[in-house]
C-alpha cells in the first residue's frame, strides 16, 4: 500500500494517540485510520482484531468530547491476507471535538493539516466554535470549564434572586450539552477579559499619573472600576455671592451608562481589554467590536438597539443594572443638556468610543475650590457613610432609594455604600430585592 495521505493515517499497532487522529479528522474533512499498517504502507496486521476494536471504541468514548461515536465506524478488514482495523471518521456536526482531560485548549483540540494532525490555536478554536454552533459568542461552549461563581452568587443573593442549576440554564450560563457557556465564563471568577484604566496628566498621553487593571467577574469589574472612576471624578465649587454650587467634572449618570455600555455591548470574541482613558478635559470609554453589523452610528441616536450579547444584557437587566435596551445613549446626552461641550460617540472598524467632556473645563476665570480625591480607589468615603448612619439613627431604617436621594448619588454607589456598612456590621439588611431595608445591626450600636 502507498504511504499516508491527507485523509489517511497508518498505525503499526494500537496506541493511545489514535484518539488524537480521530479528533483531527472529525474536526476537518474526515478520514480513515488503519491499525496494523506501517507508515510506509507495509501491512503487518493485528493478532486479535476483536480485542483491539474493543479497546479503540472504549478509548474514543471515554476520552473525546462531545460524543464523536456517531461519526466513527470501526471494522476489521482483510488486506493482503492480514487482519487490519479500519477506523472511518466523517466530519462531526458538534465541532470542535477535544480530549476531555485537556479541555478546549490547544493541547486538547486537533485538526488535520496535510498528512499530520496538528493542535489548534486558541484563536482557531474560538473561530470553529462560532462557525459550527451557529450561535453568538456568549452561547458557545466556554474553552474553560473549571469555573467558580462566588461574585455572581453574592450579587444575585443581595438582590434576592435564587440561583441554582435550573436558573443557570434559564440564564443560558449552562448550554444544552450541560457545559458552561462563554456567558458563564464572563460572569465567573475566572473571566479572562480585563478592564484597563489610564489616568493622564494634561490633555494627551505624554505623562501617566496612574494605571490600573481590573480582573475577575464582569460584575466585580463593574463595581471596582466605577469606584475608581468615581474617586477620580473631582468636584469644583463656584460661588455667586454667598451661594455655592458644586459641580463634578463628569455627571455620575453619564459615567455609569458609558461604563455599562462598554461592558454589555462589546464583542468578547476579541481578547483585548476594555479601556478607559482619563485626561484633564475628557474621559474616554473604548470597547472592542464596533457597532453590530447592520447598524450605523446614526441609528443609536434614534433609540435603536441590537444587543451583541443579549444573554449578558438580560442578566444585567434582571439585576437592575440596566433599565431597558437603547436608552443608555439618551441618558448620557440628557446628562449634558444645555452644556457647551457634548459627549461624542465614534465608531471605526472593530472599535466603539464614548467621550465625556469635563464640564468644569467650561468654567473660565471663576473662583473655585477643588476637592482633590486621591487616586487610590479603595479609600473610604467617611462623610457619605456617616450621612447614612445619621439618617438611620434618626429614622430607624433606610431604603436604597432614600440613600440615593440623601446622597444625591446613583443606585450603584448608594448600593455599594450600604453593602459596605452591612459588611462592617454597622447596618443590617432586612428583606431582599426591591423590598430591602437597612437598619441598625442588633449586635452593634451606632456611635
From TrEMBL:
Q: Which PANTHER family match?
A: GLPR-RELATED TRANSCRIPTIONAL REPRESSOR, SCHLAFEN ALBA-2 DOMAIN-CONTAINING PROTEIN
Write down what this protein is called. DNA binding domain-containing protein
Q: Name one Pfam family in it.
A: SLFN_AlbA_2
Where in this chain does the record put each Schlafen AlbA-2 domain?
4-121
Q: Which domain of life is it from?
A: Bacteria
Amino acid at each position: 500500500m502507498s504511504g499516508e495521505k491527507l485523509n489517511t493515517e497508518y498505525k503499526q499497532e494500537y496506541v493511545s494517540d489514535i484518539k488524537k487522529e480521530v479528533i483531527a479528522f472529525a474536526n476537518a474533512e474526515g478520514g480513515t485510520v488503519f491499525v496494523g499498517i506501517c507508515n510506509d504502507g507495509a501491512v503487518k496486521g493485528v493478532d486479535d482484531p476483536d480485542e483491539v476494536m474493543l479497546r479503540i471504541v472504549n478509548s474514543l468514548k471515554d476520552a473525546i468530547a462531545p460524543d464523536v461515536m456517531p461519526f466513527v465506524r470501526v471494522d476489521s478488514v482483510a488486506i493482503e491476507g492480514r487482519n487490519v482495523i479500519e477506523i472511518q471518521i466523517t466530519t462531526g456536526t458538534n465541532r470542535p471535538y477535544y480530549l476531555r482531560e485537556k479541555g478546549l485548549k490547544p493541547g486538547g483540540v486537533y485538526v488535520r493539516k496535510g498528512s499530520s494532525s496538528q493542535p489548534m490555536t486558541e484563536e482557531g478554536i474560538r473561530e470553529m466554535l462560532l462557525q459550527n454552533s451557529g450561535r453568538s459568542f456568549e452561547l458557545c461552549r466556554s474553552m474553560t470549564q473549571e469555573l467558580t461563581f462566588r461574585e455572581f452568587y453574592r450579587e444575585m443573593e443581595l438582590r434576592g434572586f435564587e440561583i441554582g442549576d435550573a436558573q443557570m440554564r434559564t440564564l443560558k450560563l449552562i448550554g444544552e450539552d450541560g457545559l458552561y457557556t462563554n456567558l458563564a465564563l464572563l460572569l465567573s471568577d475566572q473571566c479572562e477579559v480585563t478592564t484597563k484604566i489610564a489616568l493622564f496628566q494634561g490633555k494627551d498621553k505624554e505623562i501617566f499619573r496612574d494605571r490600573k487593571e481590573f480582573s475577575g467577574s464582569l460584575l466585580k469589574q463593574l463595581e471596582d472600576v466605577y469606584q475608581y472612576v468615581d474617586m477620580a471624578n473631582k468636584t469644583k465649587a463656584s460661588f455667586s455671592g454667598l451661594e455655592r454650587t458644586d459641580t463634578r467634572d463628569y455627571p455620575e449618570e453619564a459615567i455609569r451608562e458609558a461604563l455599562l455600555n462598554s461592558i454589555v455591548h462589546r464583542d468578547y470574541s476579541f481578547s483585548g481589554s476594555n479601556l478607559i482613558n482619563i485626561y484633564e478635559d475628557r474621559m474616554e470609554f473604548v470597547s472592542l467590536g464596533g457597532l453590530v453589523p447592520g447598524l450605523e452610528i446614526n441609528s443609536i441616536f434614534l433609540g435603536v438597539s441590537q444587543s451583541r450579547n443579549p444573554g449578558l444584557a438580560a442578566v444585567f437587566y434582571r439585576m437592575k443594572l440596566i433599565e431597558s435596551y437603547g436608552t443608555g445613549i439618551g441618558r448620557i446626552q440628557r446628562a449634558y443638556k444645555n452644556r457647551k461641550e457634548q459627549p461624542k460617540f465614534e465608531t471605526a472598524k472593530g472599535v466603539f468610543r464614548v467621550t465625556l467632556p469635563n464640564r468644569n473645563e467650561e468654567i473660565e476665570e471663576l473662583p473655585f475650590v477643588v476637592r482633590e480625591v486621591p487616586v487610590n480607589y479603595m479609600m473610604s468615603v467617611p462623610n457619605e457613610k456617616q450621612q447614612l448612619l445619621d439618617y438611620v439613627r434618626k429614622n430607624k431604617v433606610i431604603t436604597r432609594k432614600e440613600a440615593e436621594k440623601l446622597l444625591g448619588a446613583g443606585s450603584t454607589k448608594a448600593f455599594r455604600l450600604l453593602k459596605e456598612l452591612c459588611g462592617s456590621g454597622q447596618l443590617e439588611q432586612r428583606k431582599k430585592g426591591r423590598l430591602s431595608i437597612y437598619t441598625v445591626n442588633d449586635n452593634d450600636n451606632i456611635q
